[in-house]
Amino acid sequence: MNLAPALAAVLLVLTTSCGDTPQQKVDAAQASLNAGDFAAARTTAEEALSTEAVKADAQLTWRLEKLRLDALAASRQAPEILATLKRLQPTFGTKLDVPLYTTLAGKLSQAREHLGAIDVVQAGIEKFPEQKANFDGIINILKLAAEEAGKAGDNAALEKLSQLGYLSR
Questions:
Q1: d(C-alpha 87, C-alpha 80), whole Å
Q2: Is-contact 108 120, C-beta < 8 A?
Q3: Per-residue pLDDT tens for 8-46?
Q4: For residue 165, what are the CA distances in angstroms to 19, 44, 123?
Q5: What's 51's DSSP letter?
Q6: DSSP-assigned letter for residue 135
Q7: Residue 81: which residues within 8 A CB-CB, separation 6 or more?
Q8: Closest to 74 in 3D by CA, of 107, 120, 49
Q9: CA 111, 117, 122: angle at the middle one, nearest 5?
Q10: What is the DSSP letter of 93?
Q11: Are 123 and 84 within 8 A, CB to CB?
Q12: What is the DSSP string of 155-169?
């Protein structure tokens, strides 16, 4: 029996009932993410992001937004990731870099959300067309993942990669 999600929930209850500092909220969100309780990580991050103390601290805001993005990726929420990246662009544009896009795509792929991972890669390539070669590694990983999914009868990712010109079929 995996007790990690239960422990994360207990940690969440204890920290939120004690009037957390912003750093404690970051730590609680990270602990939930580490424990595999992605819903709790997301909820904790969102609650913290709504507080004035966090809104006043750009560094903490970014850390919580990043934790939220990681929780969304692990939860297979590609459309929400893309919407969040768009929302964050005006404030955190320089932090929305190629490594972030490739990391999020990798996490989506690990969660078996290959189509969403492809969408995140495409959004990154559209944002950074001059750095397209930096996406080759994740594209190769997605090709392998799509081929494995295809062996199990799910050809959607293979078809999408082919339509985008990454595979010749």
A1: 10
A2: yes
A3: 555 555 544 456 888 999 999 999 999 999 999 999 999
A4: 52, 40, 15
A5: S
A6: G
A7: 69, 72, 73, 104, 108, 116, 120
A8: 107
A9: 175
A10: G
A11: no
A12: -HHHHHHHHTTS---
Q: Are 105 and 117 in contact (CB under 8 A)?
A: yes
| Mean pLDDT calculated for residue range 154-164 | 91
* Structure token digits, residue 18: 């004690």
- Position 99: which residue type? P
* Two tokens, residue 27: 């730590």
For residue 52, what are the contacts with CB-CB under 8 A and spacing of at least 6?
none
CA distance 8 to 123: 33
pLDDT tens across 41-98, in order?
999 999 999 999 999 999 999 999 999 999 999 999 999 999 999 999 999 999 999 9
Residues 104/69, Cβ–Cβ less than 8 Å: yes
Report the residue count for the chain. 169
pTM: predicted TM-score of the whole model, two decimal places:
0.84
- Alpha carbons 14 and 151: distance in angstroms, whole number: 46
